[in-house]
Amino acid sequence: MLYVILFEDDPTKLAVREARDRLVIDGTTLANLEVFRRAGDGATAGTLLALVDRTQTAPGARALRAWLRAPLRDLGAITERHDAVAALVEDAALRDRLRKALAEVADLERLATRAVLGMLAPREAAALRQALVAIPALQRGLAGSSSTLLARAAAVDSQAELAAALVSRLAAEPAASTESGAVIADGVDADLDQARSMARDSKRHILALEARERERTGIASLKIRYNRVFGYSIEISRANAGRVPPEYQRRQTLVNAERYVTPEVQELEASILGAEERQVALERQLFEALRGEPGRWKPGLDLRERLQIAVQAFTTLRTCSAESSGLTLRASSRTLRAGSSTSPC
Predict the structure, then answer these.
(1) Span 293-297, mean pLDDT?
(2) Is the fold of 3-170+292-324 the same as that of 173-291?
(3) Whether the predicted model's global pTM rises above the 0.90 cut
(4) What architecture (CATH level 2) is domain 173-291?
(5) What is the reported pLDDT for 345?
């Protein structure tokens, strides 16, 4: 006896279904029927898949292939699926809205898996955010549908908390990695904002300190200089040597000037030189924390990916039904009647 293992509506559980629930088609039969490939040259043109595939997303394409590979046998399940297609056939405006919304959604099935495994890259997290923000539009479109399957899809958890976390904490256009640029949004972490400011605006911080020291000492010609060997220091001309505060520590002697350091200069130097390294470390730490969160929403993400898959596949079947000229196929009993159809057999 063959068994097919499938996810139930509760994605935390596995269901073992006997093969009688679905028609298990062997590879030879699939080839003879030219479901996916033509028998002669292996091309996809002219196959059943090519005829019906109008999917716009990778999950929808995978779902449609799975449906063709293992068609339903249970009359109730077939009727539910046909009702979903019929509901979309009767509402062309809804279908068009759904297809437009789906075009904005990335491969949620793949992203959900990578999220749970803790493998999301920053730009994948942005794609997940875009998907979670876009999918409520699909649900609103399906709300009140006469189809049981579509209405069920419209009722899945909105995952608003996870979407809000990604919107508020992830940069609008994150870098490819934490080492190559900003990943976390401004304002999320004060230490990160300070490190970014130091790395990005070091000149401004130097000029601000220089201005404060000029005002404090009364030396208008005071300047903060940088040397690869000695680092940052305060340069004062010999003419103003008598006005140097006692807390200044001599670092370097020049022909016409002396260079000094203060604890504040040394602190600024350490901040500037270590800012980029601190920024990368903080970006990595904060993104790891954010990346770990989707695992807590795994059931909801699974339901959402199933929503995306189902709506895409149903929309595809509806499109094919509307495009067909006279082709009708409807399960009303255990007797199957097809009109205006052809078969490669």
Answers:
(1) 65
(2) yes
(3) no
(4) Orthogonal Bundle (1.10)
(5) 43
Q: At what angle do helices 92-103 and 122-142 cross, to 10 degrees?
A: 170
What does the domain layout of the chain look like in residue ranges? 3-170+292-324, 173-291
For the structural domain made of 3-170+292-324, what CATH number should be given?
1.10.1420.10
Give the pLDDT of residue 12: 45
Question: Which residue type, as a one-letter code, is found at position 85?
Answer: V
